[in-house]
C-alpha cells in the first residue's frame, strides 16, 4: 500500500547495517568532541598530546571525524529516495514527504533546544526540503546538482564567503563558560548556555549545509542506480571503489595541506567505507558478521536521541557532571559500552515491536495515523490503527 509505512520485512539489510555502523561513529565523535569537552575546543589551536588520550584523538580525527556524518547524510538521501519511490502511486506523495520532513524539523528543534545543541536533525530536515524538488528531476539533473554543490563545498576556502565565524577570544570564552556550567550547572543553567551558544554554532551549520545537500543527492543517485538492490556481480567493483577511496584519501592527507583537501577527504573516505560495507554484506559470512548492526540501524532515530539523553546525563551538572573530567581513552571505552547496550536493546525491542518508538511516532505524524506497533499484529491485521 503506497500510503502505508514500510513493512519491516521489506527493508534492505545493507542500508540498516551501514546506518548502524555510521551511528557508532556519530556516537564516538559526539561523546569525545562535543559532550566530553566543549564543542568549540576543537576550533582552537592545541599542542600535540603524546599520551594515549592523544592517540585516541588522532585516530578519531583520522578515521571517524566528519566521515561518520558524511555517511549519515548519504544514507538520509537514500532514505528520501526510498520513500519517494514507495509513494509513487499515491496522489499525496509530495504532501506526505513534506509532512515527514516537517515532523523531523519539529523533532530537531526540540532536540536542539532541550537536549543538545549539536543536533543534526534540524539541518537534515531543512536540507531535505531543499532536495525534495530534485526527487522529481531526471537522473542527469540530480547528478549535475550534486557535482556542483559538492564542488562549491570543497572550494569554499578559496571563495568569497558571507559566513562569519567566532574569533579565538569568543571561542575561548565559550570553552570557559562550558567548563563551568556544563560540569556543574543545573538543567536550567545548562539550557541557558546551550541556547546562548546557538548563534556561534550557526556558522558551522551554514558551512557544511552544502555538503549535506550534496550527499543527500548522491544518496538519491545511488538508490536509483541500484546500489542496494541490483548487486549481482558488483562486489569486485565495490571493493575497487573502497580501495581507490583509501588510496585517494591517504594521498590527500599526506601530500596536500590546502583546506579544500581537508574538506574533500571525509567525503572520499566515507564513500570507501560505504562501498566496503555493502560489498561485505553481500557475502553470507559478511552478512552474518554485520547483522549485529542492523537493529541499531533500524532504530537509528531513536538510538540517536537516546545517545544525546544518556550523554547529557553522564557529562552535565544535572547528572554525573563528568564534563571536562574524562580522558579520551576512557571516553572511547564509554562509547563502546553505550553502543553495545544499544545493540542488545535494539535487538530485543525489534523482536517485539515493528519500529523503534521515535520511528513509530515519526511515521504516525507523517501519515496522520499510527502503524501497528507490536510485531504480533504485523502484518496479519489492518496496516493502520487510528490515532
Question: What's the short version?
Answer:
The chain crosses the membrane at residues 59-84, 96-114, 120-137, 144-163, 204-226, 238-256, 262-280, 301-323, 329-350. Pfam families: DUF418 (PF04235). The protein has 387 residues and is an all-alpha fold.
Task: Characterise this structure.
It comes from Bradyrhizobium iriomotense. Keywords: Membrane, Transmembrane, Transmembrane helix. The chain crosses the membrane at residues 59-84, 96-114, 120-137, 144-163, 204-226, 238-256, 262-280, 301-323, 329-350. InterPro entries: Bact_Transport_Assoc, DUF418. It is a single chain. Helices cover 69% and strands 1% of the residues. It is mostly helical and 387 residues long. It has one domain (8-385). It has a two-stranded antiparallel ribbon with strand order 1-2. Helix 10 crosses helix 11. The chain is globular.
Features:
disordered C terminus; 1% strand; 387 residues; mainly alpha
What fraction of residues sit in β-strands?
A: under 5%
First-last Cα distance = 19 Å
The geometry reads as globular
Q: State the helix count.
A: 15
| Helix content percent band | 55-70%
Low-pLDDT residue spans = 380-387
H/E element sequence: HHHHHHHHHHHHHHHEE
Strand order of the largest sheet: 1-2
Structural class: mainly alpha
Protein name: Membrane protein
Organism: Bradyrhizobium iriomotense
InterPro entries: Bact_Transport_Assoc, DUF418
Transmembrane segments: 59-84, 96-114, 120-137, 144-163, 204-226, 238-256, 262-280, 301-323, 329-350
Amino acid at each position: 500500500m503506497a500510503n502505508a509505512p514500510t513493512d519491516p520485512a521489506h527493508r534492505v539489510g545493507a542500508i540498516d547495517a551501514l546506518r548502524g555502523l555510521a551511528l557508532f561513529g556519530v556516537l564516538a565523535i559526539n561523546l569525545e568532541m562535543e559532550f566530553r569537552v566543549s564543542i568549540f575546543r576543537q576550533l582552537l589551536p592545541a599542542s600535540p598530546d603524546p599520551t594515549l588520550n592523544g592517540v585516541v584523538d588522532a585516530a578519531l580525527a583520522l578515521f571517524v571525524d566528519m566521515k561518520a556524518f558524511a555517511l549519515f547524510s548519504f544514507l538520509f538521501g537514500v532514505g528520501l529516495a526510498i520513500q519517494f519511490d514507495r509513494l509513487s502511486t499515491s496522489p499525496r506523495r509530495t504532501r506526505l514527504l513534506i509532512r515527514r520532513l516537517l515532523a523531523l524539523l519539529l523533532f530537531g528543534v526540540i532536540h536542539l533546544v532541550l537536549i543538545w545543541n549539536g543536533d543534526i536533525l534540524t539541518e537534515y530536515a531543512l536540507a531535505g526540503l531543499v532536495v525534495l524538488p530534485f526527487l522529481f528531476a531526471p537522473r542527469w539533473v540530480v547528478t549535475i546538482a550534486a557535482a556542483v554543490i559538492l564542488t562549491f563545498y570543497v572550494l569554499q576556502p578559496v571563495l568569497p564567503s558571507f559566513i562569519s565565524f567566532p574569533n579565538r577570544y569568543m571561542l575561548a570564552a565559550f570553552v570557559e563558560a562550558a567548563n563551568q556550567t556544563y560540569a556543574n550547572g543545573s538543567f536550567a543553567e545548562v539550557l541557558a548556555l546551550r541556547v546562548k551558544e546557538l548563534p556561534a554554532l550557526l556558522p558551522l551549520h551554514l558551512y557544511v549545509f552544502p555538503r549535506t545537500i550534496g550527499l543527500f543527492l548522491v544518496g538519491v543517485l545511488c538508490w536509483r542506480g541500484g546500489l542496494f538492490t541490483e548487486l549481482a556481480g558488483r562486489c569486485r567493483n565495490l571493493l575497487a571503489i573502497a580501495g581507490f577511496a583509501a588510496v585517494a584519501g591517504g594521498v590527500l592527507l599526506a601530500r596536500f595541506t590546502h583546506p579544500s583537501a581537508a574538506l574533500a577527504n571525509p567525503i572520499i573516505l566515507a564513500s570507501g567505507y560505504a562501498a566496503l560495507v555493502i560489498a561485505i554484506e553481500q557475502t553470507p559470512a559478511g552478512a552474518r558478521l554485520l547483522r549485529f548492526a542492523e537493529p541499531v540501524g533500524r532504530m537509528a532515530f531513536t538510538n540517536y536521541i537516546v545517545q544525546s539523553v544518556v550523554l547529557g546525563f553522564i557529562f552535565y551538572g544535572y547528572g554525573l557532571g563528568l564534563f571536562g573530567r574524562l580522558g579520551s581513552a576512557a571516553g572511547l571505552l564509554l562509547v563502546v559500552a553505550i553502543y553495545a547496550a544499544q545493540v542488545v536493546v535494539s535487538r530485543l525491542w525489534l523482536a517485539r515491536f515493528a519500529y523503534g518508538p521515535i520511528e513509530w511516532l515519526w511515521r504516525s505524524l507523517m501519515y496522520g495515523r499510527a502503524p501497528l506497533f507490536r510485531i504480533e499484529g504485523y502484518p496479519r491485521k489492518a496496516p493502520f490503527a487510528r490515532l
